[in-house]
Amino acid sequence: MSRGLKAPFKPYEGRKTKDKHIRLTKNMMDSKVFRSLKPCTIIVYMYMKLWANGQLEFDYSKSLGSNVVAPATFSSAVRELENKGFIDRVYFSTGGGHKPNRYKFSDRWTKQ
User: Which residue has better confidence, 4 or 66?
Assistant: First the structure.
């Protein structure tokens, strides 16, 4: 298959053959740090990766996260992702002006 063509997803991967996807490596999934994440935290992380669409930095609001998990769960998931080195907060919004927080994916988890 040439480099520019993407293989369609299989029926067992979802209903859409042309859908967005995220990248999780075996190295990450095998790491003790990743395996220590709470299940809700992993879900939030995967949605952040999907939302970021391959970008290193991305805006992600609490309301986006609250569509996936409860607001309190989202806040604790973000703290866990920060503490364990998967994301860094680049910009902290106080909520004024409805500006979302800005995050950046991090490789600090590989050094733990």
Answer: 66
